[in-house]
Design brief:
By secondary structure, the chain is mainly alpha-helical. It is 81% helix and 0% strand. The chain has one domain: MFS general substrate transporter like domains (Growth Hormone, Chain: A, Up-down Bundle). It contains 16 helices and no strands.
């Protein structure tokens, strides 16, 4: 667990996630304070998340074909360049299409970094220790997610939202410096397939697998819901609940507290509770948090918002640790990148669609009605797991770990 490879993966994964979250919080708050419409805020969130939809699948093929070190270096460069451009635009008060484009470029970095970390993790630690390794990675991410909204809220309240994106650029530079320490290994030679066939092979494996298919469907519903929520939450909190940016940032940071709690307890809970129950718990508590916020009166706005973010952090991060370990356990090594890319597309590729849907719903129906859209989508996400065989899965399929570990 303390191998140099694991420590590099831990640092690069945490830095990429921190920059992705800080950028999201910064652009939504800065655009809202700048008087942008709900529709445009939704489009900004969609641009930030479109990288997961457009980049994940080809990056997954590359992760199976080339040395992951090269992809991590590329990801760091994209993070640094895109974030630096966005900081310059925010400093000049230019909230428009150019900001959306720079945000897309910066967000492409964490995509390729996340895929590379997933592929390399089973090489860094024994498979039996994967739950603990994934929990440590999520703990690091969660700790920085705890402070990212506070930084964004503080910076925007001072009229210096550009500072948040400047920190994202610094995180990209850190990834480049750290990834340069990875060995420049060559991946084992494999027959080359055309890009679309290589992508299809990973997708077909997920579609046929009794565990991976419901995970993908649940991820689609959850990410549609969460990013519809993220497109709505800043204008809803500022305009309906009458909160100020610092208070919204503080409530949003409670997400990090929930994520830290999940990461600290993840390996322990996975070892003691039914795997299927943990996979139901994540979307179910998200549904609870969104419902309580939609029902809360303005007088209880801050506690309801903080509770929703805590539940979004705790349940889904525990779900993420569980399903990541499950994927690494049941997926053959030559398919790791493509299977991860397929699930990643399901998890994050729905972000722009959810963000646009949330923004349009807020404009067409009003914020108080639109806040129920994420509630309905979280319900569909929960149903995707409940309707499968997953709730009956009691233990991690350890029987499938042995052949790959021996290979």
């Amino acid at each position: 667990m303390n191998s140099p490879l694991f420590l590099v993966l831990l640092l690069t994964g945490v830095a990429a996630q921190f920059a992705d979250k800080l950028a999201l919080d910064t652009i939504t708050l800065a655009a809202t304070e700048g008087g942008a419409s709900t529709r445009f805020i939704g489009l900004l969130v969609a641009a930030q998340s479109a990288a997961w939809l457009l980049v994940s699948l080809p990056a997954g093929v590359l992760a199976d074909r080339i040395a992951p070190r090269s992809l991590i270096l590329l990801g760091g460069v994209l993070m640094a360049a895109g974030s630096a451009a966005g900081a310059v635009l925010l400093a000049g008060g230019r909230i428009g299409p150019a900001l959306a484009l720079s945000t897309f470029v910066a967000a492409a970095g964490p995509v390729v970094i996340a895929l590379s970390v997933f592929v390399l993790m089973p090489r860094a630690v024994p498979l039996a220790l994967l739950p603990r390794a994934n929990s440590r990675l999520e703990l690091g991410r969660a700790a920085f997610n705890l402070v990212a909204p506070l930084i964004a809220g503080w910076a925007v309240a001072r009229g210096t939202g550009w500072f948040g994106l400047a920190l994202c650029a610094a995180a990209g530079a850190l990834v480049v410096i750290t990834a340069a320490r990875l060995p420049a290994e060559r991946p084992p030679p494999r027959p080359r397939q055309k890009l679309h066939r290589a992508i299809a092979e990973g997708g077909a494996f997920v579609a046929r697998h009794p565990y991976l298919r419901p995970i993908a469907l649940c991820a689609i519903g959850w990410n549609l819901a969460f990013f519809a929520f993220m497109a709505l939450v800043a204008p809803y909190a500022l305009r309906v609940l009458a909160l100020d940016p610092k208070t919204v940032g503080l409530a949003s940071s409670v997400y990090g507290a929930g994520a830290v709690a999940a990461a600290l307890s993840g390996a322990w809970l996975i070892a003691r509770l039914p795997t299927g129950a943990l996979l139901v718990f994540g979307p179910a508590v998200s549904l609870l948090g969104a419902t309580l916020l939609a029902l809360a009166p303005p007088a209880l706005g801050w506690p309801a918002l903080a509770l929703a973010f805590f539940l979004f952090g705790f349940g889904p991060i525990l779900w993420f640790i569980t399903q990541t370990t499950l994927r690494q356990a049941v997926t053959p090594q030559p398919l790791l990148g493509r299977v991860s890319a397929t699930i990643t597309t399901a998890m994050y590729g729905m972000r722009p669609l959810g963000a646009v849907a949330g923004g349009l719903a807020g404009e067409w129906f009003g914020l108080e009605a639109a806040i129920w859209l994420p509630v309905g989508l979280f319900a569909l996400s929960t149903l995707a797991i409940l309707a499968s065989a997953m709730p009956r899965l009691r233990v991690m399929p350890a029987g499938e770990l042995t052949p790959r570990a021996a290979g």
